[in-house]
Amino acid sequence: MELRHVRALVAVAEHQHFSRAAESLRISQPPLSAAIRELEREVGVVLFERTTRTVRLTDDGAALLEPARRILGSVEEIRQIAAARRTGTAGSVRAGFAGTSGYAVLADLVREVRSREPALTVDLVPQVYSGRAIELVRRGQLDLAITGSPLPTDLGSVALGQETLVLAVPEGHPLSTTPQVAVASLAGEPLVSYPGEHDSWVRHATVTMLESAGIAPNFVAEAPDPFSLLALVAAGVGAAVVVDHRDRLHVAGVHYIRLADDVQAKFPIRLVWRAGATNPATRRAITIAREVFDTSAAADRAGGA
Q: What is the chain's Cα-based Rg?
């Protein structure tokens, strides 16, 4: 049995006329009549009662009509799925992120993707820090990622805005009464940070800031995520240079201090992907990201890592 047989059955049943059915299939009548005869021989029943004026389904033919329609519906569904995957309106995209701003950015993107392309999914991969994110994108293990690290030339990107670094200290800390803190004040200060192996851009920025002032970082503890980091600060384990995420993440017992004006405290964050990405779903997600994250309107986002 071939699809042409199934199409012939449905067309003749719906039009109750061989000439009109043949016209709807854009074939001549003889091949259509031959297809019906072949199908009748194969299934072993008579499908239509024919007269010089009318064509009517037999009871056996009527029993096969709905299954035949379901077959054609399934074929059309396959075509639509294939077309959607070709154009990127269906499929999946893996996106890595870390920190609260990464989550917020990707939440915005996922919401927009779901609105525009319901068959396209964005699978979120958490706790993927900047340096690691770049490597995973390069290897093809991630399609998209958020990073605050310097942008490699082999990756495409869209700017999301800027992150601002501040110093987080426990309430009652000697520095908590100052409106801003100089880097020199952090000499010997116990610090908590993200693990070095996470390749976090925030940790890199902290080390660079301290070493530029001739200060050796005094890391006394590490935490895998922003909430855990701030919990250590609130517990008095140490201070931490963090992204200013007061509007998104609230931890009691933590006080934030602005860094001195001569300190580089603002860093751009970007959504990145492999240049020349071939996955249609990724390309479609990139197009939506470019439209959502208009760089001319991007506000500072908080909470990255």
A: 32
What tokens does 215 get? 């200060």
Report the amino acid identity of residue 271: L
CA distance 77 to 169: 58
Q: Is 275 helix (H, G, I), strand (E, B) or coil?
A: coil
The one-letter amino acid code at 217 reads P
Task: Return d(Cα 205, Cα 281) in angstroms, integer.
Answer: 34
Query: Is pLDDT of 149 > 60?
Result: yes
- C-alpha dihedral sign at 104, 272, 160, 148: positive
Decide: 212 and 260 in contact? Cβ < 8 Å: no
DSSP letter assigned to residue 272:
E
- CB 143, CB 109: distance < 8 Å: no
Structure tokens belonging to residue 27: 């074939």
DSSP 151: P
Percent over 90 (pLDDT), the chain: 28
> Which residues share a beta bridge with 124?
95
CA dist 270 and 252 (Å) reads 30
Note whether 285 and 267 are within 8 A (CB): no
DSSP-based helix, strand, coil % in the chain, nearest 5: 45, 20, 30
Q: What is the pLDDT of residues 246-264, one digit of tens each?
A: 777 788 999 999 999 888 8
**Residue 173 in 3-state DSSP?**
coil
Q: What is the pTM of this model?
A: 0.63
Which amino acid, residue 299? A
Average pLDDT score over residue span 222-234? 92
Q: Are 289 and 109 in contact (CB under 8 A)?
A: yes
Closest residue by Cα to residue 222 from 210, 231, 211, 214: 231
Coil vs helix vs strand at 204? helix
Q: List beta partners, residue 93.
A: 122
Distance CA 184, CA 181 (A): 8
* Helix (H) or strand (E) run with residue 167 in it: strand 155-170
